[in-house]
Each structure stands twice: as structure tokens, then as C-alpha cells.
Amino acid sequence: MSFSSDVKKELAVTVRRERHCQIAELTAIITMCGGVSVSASDRVSLRIHTENRYVAEKAAALLKAAFHIRPETGIRLYARSRVFLTAVPHHEDATLVLRTCHLLHGVGSADLMDIGEELSLSSNPLLKRTCCQRAFLRGAFLSSGSISDPHRFYHFEIVCAGPEKAAQLQEIFASFGIEARSVTRKLSEVVYLKEGTQIVDALGIMEAPKALMELENIRILREISNDINRRVNCEAANISKAVATGVRQAEDICYIRDHGGLSQLPAGLEQIACLRLEHMDASLQELGDLLVPPLKKSGVNHRFEKIAAFAQKLRNNEHTVQSDQKEYND
Questions:
Q1: What is the DSSP letter of 151?
Q2: DSSP 3-state of 289
């Protein structure tokens, strides 16, 4: 099973004891994947279609717990998928559920063909309590959400039918201090989280402790691995830089040696130059420790800067002499 399926399985098996939380979660499921039908005689029925059996099982459990209704269930097979159906066919039961969920506003109007929901967090009476907001997010994720494999990358999303629903979910996330973003994908609006800490917080809000701990462990291991890689890369870069610096210093020293000898240098510079040729792999600090008396890294670097300047002066003089000789020969 995928990590996303494991999370949904964990969320599906637990039904909160508080009826108001049961209703809030059921409302989210209905608004995300439910539908209302009205017969010619104004008889209302409710149906929930989903490709995830955990959603169907959770919807049935919530209907039973909150309303003592046993819905009709079934499976429809299509070419490449299975659709699980949870239905409340009886008018009285369906009306009770929809009215309690604040999704039904009068009987006999044409608007009953669509679910009518109060999308404002401040105006929706079902979302006044923090616990009900948690339940609502849980139901929305169960119905239309997914989480990527955290071993690969971090991505949490809930697919919504339109921007109004996406804004509602973003508002609920914001009430918990999470800044969820949204993007249009084909005909849907997707509310998503990209940061590992945000996804951990979202799992905590939806009350999925097992998934939260698994994700935290993966995050810790990834952070340790990334930290090790950063350290190794940094050390490799420093070693490469030190080697390149040592080679350049040795080239300057050898040039001075071959063009008049190291005795041209002051005693302190000659001393450090000889040490560099003897200890090509040594760092500046290690060379400084070999001096008597020892010298700090900055002092050693300063001496090498003087050696480089002296070598460059010799090169410039040689170039001038060669140019004069060429001009004389011409």
C-alpha cells in the first residue's frame, strides 16, 4: 500500500464519539463526493460515489453513528476502476441528513439538484468548534486528498470542485496556522502543502498519529542524510580548494627557486616556502604549527601572499627582458 492509502486507512477506522464531529466529517465527505437527487414528486435521496473503499466505509459508519441510518452500499465496475456507492434512498432519512449537515435549504426547489453549502468558515454553524474543523478536514482529505511518498518528496493535496471550496479549506487550514496554497488543475482547484513541517501539522490536525510519527521519522532520516551530504560536499570543496591553493603556492615557490633561488626571500618567507615544498598536503594551519615559533593561519596566508607577489614580480621582469631582447633582435 502507498503512504497515502495508509493515512486514509488510519483516518477511516476511527469514528469520533462526539456527534457534532461526526456530522462535520460526514458533511465534508458529502460535499466532496456526494450528490442529491430529487424525484418528480419531490422525493429526495442522497448518494456518495467514491473509488476509495475507506471513504465508503467511513461514510456508512458516520451515518450509522450520527443518524442510526444503515445506508445501501454497492460496487459498480467500470473498465479500469471500481466505484463504491453509499446511498440513503429514503426521503425522510436523506432529508434529515442533509438538513442536519446544513446542505438542504427547503424541499421542492430546483436547487436541490445540487448540494447547497455555506462555504464561509465564520457563517457555517458546523465549523464553529475547532474539533469540528479537524473532522471536516479529515473528511475532505479522505474523499479527495492524497500524500506523496515522503521518501521521495513532500506533497499534500486536496482536489476541490471549484475555487470557493478551495478557499474554504484554505481558511480552515489558516485557522490552525497553516498557509495552504491552491492551483488550478484542469477543471479542478487543488489545495496543497509542500513543506514537510506543514504536512506533519496537517496529519496532527486530522488526528493521524501513526502516519505523523512515520513521516517524522522519515523527515529526521532525510535531514540527517542531507546534513551529511552537505558536510561531505563542503569538506570535499574545501579539500579541493586547499589542494588548488597548495599547487599554486608550490608553483610560485618553484619559480622563485628556479630564477635566482629561495635565498632571495626574507628569512620568514624562505622558511614557509621550504615547508610548503616538504608538506604539499598540509593546510595553512598545519604549516603554521610547524614554524618556530608557531604562526596563525592568517599569518601563514599573509606570507604566501608576499611570496606570490614576489613570484609575479619576477615573472613580469622576465617578460620585460624577453620583450626587450625580441625588440633588439628585430
A1: T
A2: helix
Q: What is the mean pLDDT of each run of 10 residues along the chain (330 residues)?
A: 90 90 95 87 89 92 94 87 92 92 64 60 86 95 94 93 92 95 92 94 94 90 84 83 85 90 89 89 87 89 92 84 56
Identity (one letter) of the amino acid at 233? Answer: N
Cβ atoms within 10 Å, residue 294: 12
Q: Residue 157 in contact with residue 192, Cβ under 8 Å?
A: yes
CB-based contacts of 26, cutoff 8 Å, min separation 6: 59, 62, 63, 66, 97, 101, 139
Outline which parts of the chain fall under CATH 3.10.28.10: 3-207
pLDDT digits (tens, 9 = 90+) for 282-329: 888 888 899 888 899 999 999 999 999 999 988 888 777 566 555 555
pLDDT value at position 107? 47
Please report which helix (H) or strand (E) contains residue 159, including its range.
strand 156-160
CATH classification (class only), 3-207: alpha beta
| Spatial CA neighbour of 297 closest among 310, 306, 286, 281 | 286
Give the angle subtended at the CA of 85 by the CAs of 136 and 1, to the nearest 5°: 70
Measured in degrees and rounded to the nearest 5, phi and psi for residue 285 equal -65, -40
| pLDDT for residue 238 | 80
120-138 per-position pLDDT tens digit: 777 888 999 999 999 999 9
DSSP single-letter state for residue 262: G
